[in-house]
Amino acid sequence: MSYTPGLQVKASTRYRVTRTLPIPGEILVRMGDRVTADQVVARTDQPGDVIPVNVAHQLSVTAADAASAMRKSVGERVGAGEILAQSNGLFGYFRQSCFAPQDGTIESISRITGQVILRGTPSPVEVLAFVAGVVVEVIPQQGVVIETDAAFIQGIFGIGGEQLGRLRVIADAPHQDLTPEMLKPEHAGCVIVAGGRIHGETVSRGKELGVHGIISGGIDDQDLKEILGYDLGVAITGSERVGLTLIITEGFGDIAMSQQTFSLLKSMDGRLASINGATQIRAGVLRPEIVIPRSDVSGENDAVAERVAAGELAVGETVRLIRDPYFGELGVVSELPVEPVVLASGSKARVLKVRCDSGRDVVVPRANVEIVVK
């Protein structure tokens, strides 16, 4: 037995997603409720910014006098430009006033510093269901767990956050690059499936048309820099503001989408897809996801997925090679030698033998593959 990361490409699975608020709030659905992908399931108010106002300084008085000069009390709302405090002046004349710099609520008044703390207007936070399904768990004041039967595909890399849209496969083959002229106005709001490499100008065209997402086999590092406007480096992606979500299924360079992934996406053409480009490559691996809910199948039989969750690798398992010189190739594990082997670098490692879809047999370190779940 060996252990390796798993990359899932599944026509049917029982998919669960937990949707939580950043701070406690109100849950808007109940156990057993059926929800749509764009339905708000939880809501809260994010506290506004803290705005300090030095009343004593602005009125040229002591801290104690500043507290006495207040025209508003703790807990009271004020509008931008409204008088917070006012000095007595001299015989009622020459009064100085302190004004609220923006809308907010008075949180505290200090008799020691003469400073007033305003709390800005709260920002509403709403959590969407993300996928159409059934609420199977309610976490009081925090969120819900939603379950659905769905086609499920994990990518290698992505940018951009959660998006919803109709899946539109506009490439004729998994090796066909997506060019700007292939995108049309009717693709606004859709998730577009290309084949091979995606180019920077195509992403720009997609943004202009209002495309919600693009799924493609590969991307060049220079195109990624053009899309983002900077070098990404090692980070968690998903928060980029690029106007759409981009998911790469195979890797960097001129790489065609795998036939398995392309065929599955093509069979789902026209369905509503939920996608998320968030990626973390280092510790705590996070993969970009494509979820396509479907009611025509049941995803209860997940024996292979359970083995992947445990990291179990066995003879006959479908794998993807994730290191050069075979990067991106798919194949089946044909042998799992027990004894370590001396590699070309001179180091020893446990290896496995893979019969690639291209027909050749290769021997690679076990760390150089990941399971592909069908």
Number of helices: 6
What separation lies between the terminal Cα atoms? Answer: 20 Å
- Count of folded domains: 3
**CATH topology tier name of the largest domain:** Glucose Oxidase, domain 1
Radius of gyration: 28 Å
Give the % helix: 10-25%
Number of strands: 30
* Low-pLDDT stretches: 300-310
Briefly note the structural class of the backbone: mainly beta
Specify the overall morphology: elongated
CATH architecture of the largest domain: 3-Layer(bba) Sandwich
CATH top level label of the largest domain = Alpha Beta
Major sheet size, sense and barrel closure: 17 strands, mixed
What is the residue-mean pLDDT, rounded to a whole number?
87
How much of the polypeptide forms β-strand, as a percent range?
Answer: 35-45%
Comma- or semicolon-separated keywords:
mainly beta, 374 residues, OB fold (Dihydrolipoamide Acetyltransferase, E2P), 17-stranded mixed β-sheet, 3 domains, 6 helices, elongated, four-stranded antiparallel β-sheet, 12% helix, Glucose Oxidase, domain 1, SH3 type barrels, single chain
